[in-house]
């Protein structure tokens, strides 16, 4: 075989990586158990110390009680606030249902006005004529009197079916306009129906008559005479403003209720509980499980990294991918043990290579027969590690079967000049020890054999 160079491995063999990890199950198990014990024991010992520390235990219990009290207080306050807001909303809705103003349609308001003329000239007892100069004060006094009068919405025709205890100040629907120069005073009322507007306007007229004597006694002689009643066209912005204000207030209450309800939903009962022995055990168990999972991950990761950076020969398939130019004469199965761990190893070996279940002695005899076939009567050099029991048993089989003039056995060619001289010119069979021989050492041996002109007949993995 002329080309004795090694071919680099280009692709990662997932199957070989999987079995490399499986073969390290002892390391993974021990590492994971240690990673589970360290945080579990630390948590358990720390918890037991805290459990026996009366001062710390008392502080913990007080803290738990304080958290619970704060939670109950917050729950009570939020519940009371929610009930209060709901009550306000219900009150607002009932008020709207019974309110005269809020049930008016701003686009269909009936407006009527009544105009009065002020005569400030009067006759004195002696027959002479005099003029009262308090025009502005007189007109303003009537405006104030009308604005302050109490008008019950239940007394209006359209409200005959409504309760009279609604605190509905419909005097806000009265608009006054006074002209001091023209000595006129106009009151405009807004109502939901023409009948209500007429009743409303009559109430204003009655209030003017009722207050005339009082204002006369305070501001002097005058006469206030009704001169005109008429319907007024146009929109009533006052009604629209009151309706908008009510809607805004109701929406604000709804938003506040939504926020309080969300706070009630998000309010969680505190999880800090009184420390007990069972809670200490549970905490230690949780930390142990976490450590076990972390240890399992780390151990598998370390095993994978070691496999990827390792240069050792671990299996037949892997070797053939690295050295496709070398003839594989056979591989001796891994050793079998009798313990439970060895049985598990045997199962893994069988998954990886079904031929591993074959008897080792039969495999050695078959390999020795192949060696005899490829060697013939030529001198033979066995090069490689021969310290293992499998290697020694194979060498004995070779000595018994081969009829060649001589069989030379060398561990490696780096032993010195004598080893190189003994190996020169002989056909060579390489003994590669699994999990011990590296590809770097094998390459060095192949380079020397190439320089010596030796022909490599095949490889045996032991």
From TrEMBL:
Domain of life per record: Bacteria
Entry keyword annotation includes Transmembrane helix: yes
Name this protein carries in UniProt: Capsular polysaccharide biosynthesis protein
Organism: [Clostridium] aminophilum
Coiled coil spans: 57-88
Transmembrane segments: 25-45, 287-309
UniProt keyword annotations, A-Z: Coiled coil, Membrane, Transmembrane, Transmembrane helix
């Amino acid at each position: 075989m002329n080309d004795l160079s090694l071919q680099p491995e280009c692709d990662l063999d997932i199957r070989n990586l999987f079995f490399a990890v499986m073969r390290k199950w002892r390391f993974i198990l021990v590492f994971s158990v240690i990673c589970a014990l360290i945080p579990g024991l630390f948590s358990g010992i720390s918890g037991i110390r805290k459990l026996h520390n009366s001062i710390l235990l008392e502080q913990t219990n007080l803290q738990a009680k304080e958290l619970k009290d704060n939670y109950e207080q917050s729950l009570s306050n939020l519940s009371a606030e929610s009930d209060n807001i709901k009550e306000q909303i219900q009150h607002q809705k009932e008020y709207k249902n019974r309110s005269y103003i809020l049930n008016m349609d701003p686009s269909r308001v009936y407006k009527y006005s009544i105009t009065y003329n002020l005569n400030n000239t009067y006759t004195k007892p002696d027959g002479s004529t005099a003029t009262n100069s308090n025009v502005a004060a007189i007109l303003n006094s009537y405006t104030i009197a009308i604005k302050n009068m109490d008008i019950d919405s239940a007394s209006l025709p359209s409200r005959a079916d409504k309760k009279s205890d609604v605190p509905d100040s419909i005097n806000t629907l009265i608009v006054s306009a006074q002209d001091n120069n023209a000595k006129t005073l106009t009151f405009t009322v807004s109502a939901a129906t023409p009948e209500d507007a007429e009743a409303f306007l009559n109430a204003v007229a009655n209030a003017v008559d009722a207050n005339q004597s009082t204002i006369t006694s305070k501001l002097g002689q005058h006469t206030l005479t009704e001169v005109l009643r008429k319907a007024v066209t146009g929109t009533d912005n006052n009604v629209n403003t009151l309706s908008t204000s009510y809607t805004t207030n109701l929406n604000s209450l709804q938003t506040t209720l939504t926020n309080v309800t969300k706070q009630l939903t998000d309010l969680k009962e505190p999880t800090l509980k009184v420390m007990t022995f069972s809670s200490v055990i549970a905490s230690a168990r949780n930390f142990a499980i976490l450590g076990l999972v972390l240890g399992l991950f780390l151990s598998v990761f370390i095993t994978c990294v070691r496999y990827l950076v390792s240069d050792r020969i671990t299996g037949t398939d892997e070797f053939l991918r690295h050295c496709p130019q070398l003839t594989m004469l056979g591989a001796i199965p891994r050793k079998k043990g009798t313990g439970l761990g060895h049985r598990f190893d045997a199962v893994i070996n069988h998954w990886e290579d079904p031929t591993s279940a074959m008897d080792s002695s039969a495999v050695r005899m078959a390999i020795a027969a192949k060696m005899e076939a490829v060697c013939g009567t030529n001198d033979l050099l066995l090069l490689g590690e021969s310290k293992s029991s499998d290697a020694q048993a194979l060498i004995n089989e070779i000595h018994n079967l081969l009829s060649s003039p001589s069989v030379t056995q060398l561990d490696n060619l780096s032993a010195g000049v004598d080893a190189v001289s003994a190996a020169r010119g002989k056909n060579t069979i390489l003994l590669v020890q699994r999990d011990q021989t590296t590809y770097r050492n094998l390459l060095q041996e192949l380079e020397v054999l190439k320089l010596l002109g030796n022909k490599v007949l095949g490889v045996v993995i032991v």
